[in-house]
Amino acid sequence: MTPVADSGQTFVTGLTGAIGGTPLIELTRISAESPFRTFAKLEGDNPGGSIKDRVALQMVRDGIRSGRIVPGRSVLIESSSGNLGIGLAHMCAYYGIKFICVVDPRSNAQNIAIMRALGAEVEVVTQTDPATGEYLPARIARVRELAATIPNGFWTDQYSNPLNARAHHTTMREIAEAAPGPVDLLFCAASSCGTLRGCADYIRAHDLPTRIVAVDAVGSVIFGQPAGPRLIPGHGAALRPKLYRDDLADEVVHVDDTECVVGCRQLARREAILAGGSSGAVVAALDQLRDRIPPGATCVLILPDRGERYLDTIYSDAWVNAHFGDISHLWKQADVEVASC
Ligand SMILES: Cc1ncc(COP(=O)(O)O)c(C=O)c1O
């Protein structure tokens, strides 16, 4: 956020001014006994509730400036499981642009309601792609069809749009500026690879010593693992995105759905941070590498979104029991440790 001082008052102009500038906070509980420091970048503090607000702003504002998007005339079309859709719905409402978001049945009903409340049209693809059995290729096929047939249709194409990565130069710049010293390890969840690539490009361009740990889902194909079923949306992808590059990450950690839930619940119980599924994955990745992190190191976890939209899944005991059995001992232990802090 870039506040503007005027007559002693500090404010930003319009919703776009409130995107970015999210807090970096030190986590004092989940790594209490570790010889390294851990910080979290709270991207859920963006107005649309996720890191994707940065991408929506970058793609729409750049499109308007270059004349490829014309408010009142263009129709924006995008495939999103929720967060980018919500970010674009905000931007399109703000700039007066019609927006059609293509989702699938795994998308959260509340996300769809939010987009509709902001004036977006939401189309739900109900059939998976016959070749892969996945929704993502089916969603993209539908987006291509709409972009080709709707007059002035414009596909923002988050999976190959370089502006998706460009938006995260500021994410990494903010982290580097706010951290108490050089960041040794950056833990970053991957789906379109926009965050990963934007942070990697910034790190290399500024010759920072930061090593990147990419956090992917078990069952995602981004880093060459076999495709498999995944329950938790956000991180992971059924197709390798065009923004992917072999040199983006120094290390890759795969996290399964159970670890993801445990990571979220630990974050909520120990640090009082209610965050989304991929944030739990990032916490679980830190846990997997814990014994190899050098003493004195500074770790930064990017927490991509807020947890309120996961109350019926990750934070519902009934949902967790139905999918994983009773695993509550895996985070209840944390209560005992916090009580003794
Ligand atoms: C909750 C959440 N986590 C992680 C990601 C992955 O970010 P990226 O698409 O930049 O790889 C996304 C992307 O939509 C997301 O919504």
Give me a quick take on this structure.
The chain has 341 residues and is of the alpha/beta class. It has 11 helices and 12 strands.
Describe this structure as you would to a colleague.
37% of the residues lie in helices and 17% in strands. Helix 3 (109-117) links the parallel strand 6 (98-103) and strand 7. With 341 residues, it is α/β, with parallel strands linked by helices. It is globular and about 60 Å long. The strands form three sheets. It has a six-stranded mixed β-sheet with strand order 3-4-12-9-10-11. Strands 7-6-5-8 form a four-stranded parallel β-sheet, sandwiched between helices. It has a two-stranded antiparallel sheet with strand order 1-2. The chain has two domains: 15-45 and 168-330, Rossmann fold; 52-158, Rossmann fold (3-Layer(aba) Sandwich). Bound molecules: pyridoxal-5'-phosphate (PLP). Pyridoxal-5'-phosphate binds at residues 50, 52, 83-84, 189-196, 234-235, 276, 278, 304-305.
